[in-house]
Design goal:
Layout: E1 43-52, H1 56-64, H2 66-72, E2 75-78, E3 86-90, E4 96-105, E5 112-121, E6 128-136, E7 142-151, H3 157-178, E8 192-198, H4 201-209, H5 211-217, E9 220-223, E10 230-236, E11 240-250, E12 262-268, E13 276-284, E14 289-297, H6 308-333
Antiparallel strand pairs: 1-7, 2-3, 3-4, 4-5, 5-6, 6-7, 8-14, 9-10, 10-11, 11-12, 12-13, 13-14
Helix pairs in contact: 1-3
Length: about 375
Amino acid sequence: MTVDDPTSAAAWRDTSIPVLDIDSADFPPLHRNGAFPIVQDRWERLVSTVRIAAPVERVWAALTDPEQVGQWFAVCRGAWAVDGAESILDFEDGEFFLCRTVEVRTPESGGRAELRHLWRWVGVGPATSVTWSMTACGPEVTAVTVIEEAVNPPSDWRSWNGMGWPGILDQLADFIRTGVPWRWPWRRMGPYVQTELPGSTFEVWAMLTAVPAMQFWLSRATGSLAEGQTVDIILGDASGVATLQVHRHIEANQQFPSYLPRLEFGLRRPGWPAELSGHLWIEPAGLGRSLLQVFHTGWEALSVVAAPLAERRLLTGFWVGAFGRAEQMAQSQHRPPPVVPGPVTAGAGDDRMPGDAPFGAGPHGWSR
């Protein structure tokens, strides 16, 4: 075969013609536009009100006097309703609110009073703002309105907290009317623990359910979180162990409507006559953040336990500690890169300005 053969490669090679060079900037591929999310926040507000047949001064005392608050709401520990001070509203079953008072306006300033505070459920949940307002509607009637505001709360926040506030206001009104304590001694559901973690829901869930991670945050001794498996966990040096039986493990993108992952499990302890039901799940909490939550039900089955409240407090403490360790792990995975002063120099392979795109943010909450 010679070069004159039109079927040969040599016949078509002409060194005088420049090699075809297509700049990707002139003809870019699809789906490479560099779009990224910058905000995924939502603000929510709950407003509930009640009229109480009592002067505003009497209602104010019932709200701000620690002894009285302990009769209709929760036991006060620390400086409750003191401007700038922190305190705890303790339900004495392992769960509580950590509070910080940010504004106090007593009835002496007119026919209106106001108490505003921040609180976190069991000290580690997302902070929300609560404002109690009282307005005199005559000498013997007071309108009480409570407003709770949150940014990126749990998906069931409206139903859970929204249904709870009218009951709390009714307890306040009944206590003022009768002087009888109206606090519940303890609840058959819970503990409920929640905490925010850096990272998207899918990557955080994958990290936490991996066996090496479970040894740290969940105090795993043996087992895995695969469906049908068991995990032996250490509740504490002086608290013994428990066995977590995985009934269902729903992975991401597997179930309508949220397609978010979750775990349904049972918990057993030596001495318990039955299994305590548990739910562990995660959901978005704004851009690049997730809300990890756990909830228990079925304490009726443990009613013969000599000290059910002690077991409940122990379990609450375990989950608070576990979620704290989970946050440490998530933070170590999402330490921000050092901020570069000014734009990235040409040729560095990245033309973003510092702070432009969230590092690790990708489509549909996944990270790239």
